[in-house]
Predict the structure of Solute carrier family 26 member 10.
Amino acid sequence: MSGLPGAGTCPGLGETSDLKSPLGAKFREPLTEARFQQLFGDAEPEPELPAEPRGSRPCGRWARWARWARRAGARSGPGAGRLLRARLPPLRWLPRYRWRAWLLGDAVAGVTVGIVHVPQGMAFALLTSVPPVFGLYTSFFPVLIYTLLGTGRHLSTGTFAVLSLMTGSAVERLVPEPLGGNLSAIGREELDAQRVGAAAALAFASGALMLGMFALQLGVLSTFLSEPVVKALTSGAALHVLVSQLPSLLGLPLPRQIGCFALFKTLAAVLTALPRSSPAELTISALSLALLVPVKELNVRFRDRLPTPIPGEIVMVLLASVLCFTSSLDTRYNVQIVGLLPGGFPQPHLPNLAELPRILADSLPIALVAFAVSASLASIYADKYSYTIDSNQELLAHGVSNLISSLFSCFPNSATLATTSLLVDAGGNTQLAGLFSCIVVLSVLLWLGPFFYYLPKAVLACINISSMRQMFFQMQELPQLWRISRMDFAVWMVTWVAVVILSVDLGLAIGVVFSMMTVVCRTQRVQCLALGLAEGTELYRPLRESHKLRKARGLCVLSYPAPLYFGTRGQFRRSLEWQLGLGEAAAEPVRVVVLDCSGITFADAAGAREVVQLASRCRDAGIHLLLAQCHASVLGTLTQAGLLDRVTPEQLFVSVQDAAAHALERLTCTVWV
């Protein structure tokens, strides 16, 4: 670049100068991918469990089993063994399980969660518009499958209120109740069977969608459901759950409202029918909430002092069942009860595949919510306890869980907020806690089901409402969110209002679209930053607005920290024109400009052509353009757009420091920091 127009003579390396430049500094060699692989290798380390305390090493048979598994994987080839361990996580963590240190905690946590699964599963089944026993099935099969396939050590799966609400709305639309509402026992059984089939078909379709996403390695899609969207969605859905349970709390046989404005339609119907409320069921609901709500609060406030959380739900279920049986509330006051829970398991059968085209529009948001909530919960506890999860393996686990459990008449399922928190508070350490939870639910299905015959359905409605506590309390984070990011606050509020006013499905779509729009808008507001050399270092940092860069002989170092695509090309052009004074007569004309491209994560065809045009305009204006730190993909796009027809390879640099030093060798420039 000795032919720079108007270039002056730079001081020699041994001469004194007031330049704050790294002349004579020895720059590091660029760390190429080949050099990185040579130094560090390409094998991804397997996540390690926490350090094992003395005296808690795996017992001999498990150590021998681990050695056998490693030898079997070696015989079948390193690729097959790695794939087997990746797809069956117990092959990684079970041989290193600390039986003395962890078994008791997993057993206590699993039994505690299983006890909660029993009433909560029956309650969420009513929210799904299917008989209560199918909630027990959904609390058994998905938990068992996730234990074998999931990577979240502290995750508890099963019935989830938001998914039950979404599934119930779809089931009510697909299989509506007759207008008269007075069905015989046989008619009620036929209606329930059709609704169970529709719910199972939704689980099958959502599981198939998640498996398709796994095949395409789309676990990254969970990032598009941002934290404000997920929290606003669950908080708004909790309000829907509360309002939808009001008829059961008051003993009002009202049809379920679906579609847009369902929350307000339900409130209007309840207020209209309020004089016909059942005093007996209203009393049962009031007493149940008077017990459940304080117990929930005690469990939260004294979680560090209690050896295990108080199982308020199962206590309430037992008390209400005994009270209803001894007082004959079902016959004397017409209190709605659960009735007979069939023992054992249903015969496995394939859902009606003819319904799949009708339910596909409902299955997609169910699959997205199930995966997003599960992945975010797993990530929270993985960060807290210092281990990693595989988002694509989570897709496989939840996809297989929904797909296989649908064969046993289960409805859509995912990780749950309440039971996951309960499992952690009770001392759970690994996925083995899920097996103990399954044992509890299995005992109810096989032997203890008749004890729930006289359980009032109003108690299940109260359990639904009390389980929404965490979701309602998410609104307490709004003031802090306002202080941190007004944009995230806007995303939260838009999503919540859309969920409450319209529906959960539409609210989710609006929240995702609005969240993505905020990202696009923020990329369009980015400005080019002027960089200066930080004193005493070799690093170039953005200059503060209160100071100016003096361009004595015209060196200017700029950075554009945003993607360069069709939506930002105009802002990129205007910002560079203003910084370089293109088309204007400047008192201190720029002679050399160094453009730091490290912030340009990608460029499309329109953005690449904009850089090529910039190179042409700089050449016509007598400005020498140097590009530094271009990503390989961005540089490839620029090359395809014809950049090398405007600049030479000598104008491309690995670092800003090298580019600036190269220019300063030929220019006399003063850079203020």
Remarks:
- The chain has 28 helices and eight strands.
- Strands lie at 157-158, 414-415, 529-533, 540-542, 555-559, 592-596, 624-628, 652-653.
- The mean pLDDT is 82.
